[in-house]
Amino acid sequence: MSSTHSPRPLRWVKSTYSGGEGGQCIEWAPEHAAATGEFLVRDSKDPNGPRLPLTREGFAGLVEFAKHHG
């Protein structure tokens, strides 16, 4: 797996399973995932905060959880 730091800025996309009121939003970096296989997730309220690196399987599990509990 690659490093979570990239030489160019990442494009972040809000999850479609995030809360509509703006309070519970997560974002992910799809181009980074496609290029490296590492799925980065962050809290949209804290864009400079920590990034959670997930495997493809871990990200799929997060999406399934959100579908059922979001």
Structure, explained:
- The chain has helices at 30-36, 56-69; strands spanning 13-14, 26-28, 39-43, 52-54.
- The radius of gyration is 12 Å and the shape is globular.
- The chain is of the alpha+beta class.
- The protein is 30% helix and 19% strand.
- The chain has a four-stranded antiparallel beta sheet.
- It starts with 12 loop residues before the first strand and ends with a helix.
Helical content (DSSP H or I, runs of 4+): 25-40%
Mean pLDDT: 85
Please state the oligomeric state of the protein chains shown.
single chain
| Record field, number of beta strands | 4
Helix and strand composition category: alpha+beta
Quick summary:
By secondary structure, the chain is an alpha+beta fold.
Furnish the topology, listing elements before pairings.
Layout lengths: L12 E2 L11 E3 L1 H7 L2 E5 L8 E3 L1 H14 L1
Antiparallel strand pairs: 1-2, 2-3, 3-4
